[in-house]
Specification:
Low-confidence stretches: 8-31, 343-349, 351-358
Shape: globular
Oligomer: single chain
Strand content: 15-25%
Mean pLDDT: 91
Number of helices: 14
Helix content: 25-40%
Length: 440
């Protein structure tokens, strides 16, 4: 899809220039809402750990919700997820053999079934096609982050999100911290000016290494890569887009969802150099510059044995705000001191997943299903795609070593994910080298 800078100004407007998602119009007679007054049927697309968790939260969100369909590229992954869900929600999981869809086209079969709500949790590269198809079919949507691995895909998501708003379809994103009640209170205070004008921000997402699945003899090259999608930027977007985007979303939230003017920095592979890690980097170091002069210093890494950090700290003219996702600290220091006092204290890197803070995941689905019940559609499209754009611009800057504007990033024409793909497709992208890799 061609997308000129003029198109960017006129239609994408992804917050550099203005709002692109219209306000939801009044619900019309015969709209998608009218059939959702009784049992809500849910379909899960992408049956890995996050997808299975999303299904649990959907089933917990409303007393009259059932899971009726599941789809995944791999049958073994679908069956493992089904077993977990059926064991925990025996009555609410009503997925027959004919409603278990596998393969790369499984999402179409599920969306074409009679589900009311779809949970999109397949690897990120598939998200634009899945979202488009769900919106065109009139389904309400939970859409896990991120939403695209490249600019052409992100433009498709922007258009789909706009169409969802026009059709009164609820679209809730997987940016879970936006649904975390302590952070809502904290960021409301930032946006209300309690630390004054923001001058700088320090942002981190430093973690260890993640899982890897050893190759089996009967897997094709594409099957192996899709099962290990984290390590291929054309499937995951690289870890700045797939994982560290949560910290960038908190940065964007605190900055009032303004688009940065430019981003520069670097990245590379210092530790994860084994071929099993595909073509992704293991660290990025970037500086985002905003209109008015504010700068955000961002660092992320996935390296075993290194010190963890998952936080954002804003410094303003009247004080400082610290939000630490590992310790649970939410505090303002300075002219208007304040501290959130009821948060569970976290003691290890992943403790927030085991604690009260997991309610942020549940909150997403509670609000999604309440919006369906109450005919008050939610559409996270504007800010969720804006954050994806900020992460995409950061990856481009890190890969090339050049300074990149968000306008350049959104208008980029390079397609990372080769559609359509089959299990026989052989495909890869060379590892980027700052100073050598160029925009295409």
């Amino acid at each position: 899809m061609e997308f000129s800078r003029r198109d960017f100004i006129k239609t994408a407007g992804v917050a550099a220039v203005g709002t692109f998602i219209p306000k939801s119009p009044a619900v019309a007679s015969g709209s998608v809402w009218t059939s959702n007054s009784n049992t809500l049927k849910v379909g899960l697309i992408g049956c890995g750990g996050r997808g299975t968790g999303a299904a649990e939260e959907a089933l917990n969100a409303d007393p009259n919700v059932i899971l009726t369909a599941m789809a995944d590229a791999f049958g073994d992954q679908l069956e493992e997820s089904y077993g977990k869900l059926k064991g925990k929600y025996a009555q609410k999981v009503q997925v027959s053999g004919g409603s278990k869809f596998t393969g790369l086209d499984a999402y179409r079969k599920l969306i074409d079934s009679d589900v009311d709500v779809v949970l999109l949790a397949a690897p990120p590269a598939f998200r634009p096609a899945h979202l488009e198809y769900a919106v065109n079919a009139g389904k309400h949507i939970f859409c896990e982050k991120p939403f695209s691995v490249d600019a052409p895909g992100l433009r498709r998501v922007i258009i789909a999100a706009r169409k969802a708003a026009e059709k009164n379809i609820s679209l809730v994103s997987g940016f879970c911290w936006r649904y975390h009640l302590p952070k809502r209170e904290t960021f409301t205070r930032i946006l209300d000016g309690q630390i004054g004008e923001i001058l700088t921000a320090e942002v981190t997402y430093n973690t260890g290494e993640l899982w890897h699945k050893e190759r089996l003899s009967d897997w094709s090259d594409m099957q192996y890569k899709v099962r290990n999608w984290l390590y291929y930027n054309w499937l995951s977007g690289d870890h700045i887009i797939e994982q560290a985007i949560h910290s960038l979303d908190m940065l964007q939230w605190g900055m009032g969802d303004m688009t940065p003017v430019r981003v520069g920095g670097t990245g590379g592979r210092q530790k994860r150099t084994d071929p099993k890690y595909g073509n992704v980097f293991d660290h990025f170091a970037l500086t985002y510059e905003y209109a008015g002069g504010a700068k955000a210093y961002f660092y992320c890494r996935q390296q075993a044995g290194t010190a963890p950090s998952y936080a954002v700290e804003f410094t303003g003219t009247d004080g400082k705000c610290i939000v630490d996702c590992r310790t649970g600290l939410h505090e303002i220091k300075g002219k208007n001191p304040w501290k959130y006092s009821d948060e569970t204290k976290f003691t290890d890197e992943n403790a927030y997943k085991k604690s009260e803070a997991r309610s942020m995941y549940q909150q997403e689905h509670d609000e999604l299903f309440a919006s369906v019940r109450n005919s008050r559609p939610i559409n996270d499209g504007e800010w969720m795609t804006r954050t994806n754009l900020v992460a995409l611009a950061g990856r481009m800057a890190g890969y090339t070593g050049q300074t990149v504007s968000c306008e350049q990033a959104l208008c980029d024409t390079e397609t990372y994910f080769p559609e359509p793909v089959s299990w026989d497709t052989k495909y890869d992208i060379p590892i980027a080298i700052p100073g050598i890799t160029r925009f295409k």
